[in-house]
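Dear colleagues,

As part of the handover before I leave the project, I'm documenting each prediction I ran so the next person doesn't have to rerun anything. This entry is a single chain, and its sequence is reproduced below.
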Amino acid sequence: MFTSRRPLLAVAALLLSTLWGCGGGSGGADKLGFGSLSGSVFIQRDALASGAGAEAIQISVEGTTLSATAAPDGSFTLDSVPEGYQTVVARTTSKAASLVAQVRRGRRTDVGDVILADAGQISGLVTSSTDKSPITGARVTVTLAVMSNAADILPLPVRHARTDAAGSYTIRGLLPGSYTATIEKPGFVATSLLLEVRHGATTAGDAAMDPAPAEAGGNLAGVVTAVNAAGENIPVAGALVVVHTGDVVIQNMPPIRDGVGPAVWPPPFYAITDDQGAYEIANVPAGEVTVTASRSGFEPGTEKATVVAGKTVSVDLTLRPHAPRVGNVAGIVTDKATGAPIAGAKVAARFQAPPPPPTDGSGSSTGSSGGGFVPGDMVLVTETDANGKYSLTVPAGERLLAVHSNGYRIATQTVTVTAGADVQADVALEPLPAGERFTVGGVAVVMRDGAEVPASGAHVVLSSVTDPSMDGSDRPVAAFHVRAGADGTFQLKAPAGEYTICAVLRDLSSVPAPLTVSGDTRVKVVLEKMIGL
């Protein structure tokens, strides 16, 4: 998991790129510490929200009773969140988003801007295959279908549900895509379904479970944990634990069946860990076995065990996060003239995201996807806090930082980032003399039925075309940001020069337009629907 003031989740990284360029062991819950989560949630719409009657957005931590309602401006905070990799779900009745956040003991994790999109749900009836009676209290675990543990670096969200007295369950707020739904209940053979979720629709997830055979072997039970930054073991929910009696085959999804037929990939000796990282697998044939645990975002863990008929053998497994391919840049931004810290200064790094991993000729990935970053030209950006401090997680290598704040000259600094390490980069900004400091203001609007509607909250970006680029390309390094007010108006300070100006609001964007600044300037920015979203 990559964290910063705006963590590099794929959706967050893509959003920031768009905004900048305008389209461009043992363990247990009793040993856990607690932290907090904060961020902002927004709804992706075709039209601007009027504000009146807007649907409330609920934010929850999966597997806990923690939940909150986002404030009118989209902000939220959740306290007393157990440390570890937590699935965070934000949803309304029809839209949702989910992500994995790494919560650290005694610290606050900012998940940044979370964009809700159209969602669907999975709903099903779980029954016994012998007499068709409903199965109550079965645990249903849903995660995105991933065929290889090496194909995804960031942990994937894991959703949970229990069947009710009628054997029914529903998991709401799932983005469109392919999911694995695994259903477990003591006394029955675990079963898994491969399901396709579509927005605005309910996908049937019915399953008929076979009773477990009469005890002829032994049981395996244990806890799957991960080692956190402090060297402590914390439980991992949603890990796949598989027992092999022959050659070990690491696979990050369970055998798939249609709910009534045989499993595609026998034997059926597997389980998914619960919220405390615990698992139990019954009726394993006696003898020597290999137990493996895998979870997206982690290296698999493996242990040997001897199964004894009629007994339960404890096998705990430990996972380690994929080796870091990113480092952290942190520092303080100050006023060069006074030495005072500058709050709200933007710190950015542009880089080319790595290409997709090579394949082995069969189409299967043979390497990482580059840390979960989306392909293309990326800009990662954060801003300083009230004390002028910033922290930005970026891919390892030589990176050129661009630092700016309204009323100051752009400053650039080259830093060498080492994977898994921190680098200090303090920056002093030079104030613009009064004669070189001009006001660029105006209004951002959206055309609706022939009328102009204020683009409230739009991100307006003024990018210099005269400053040197970060990476040798023709794209500019200097960019001034400001958010439009409720009436769509905006204002910022910039030196004289040649610029392009554009604005972004959810799935709306303006076409970058050239702008010459030689004095105080006013401009109108018109946003339209972004193609491809």
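The chain has a mean pLDDT of 76. The helical segments are 10-21.

All the best with the project,
I.
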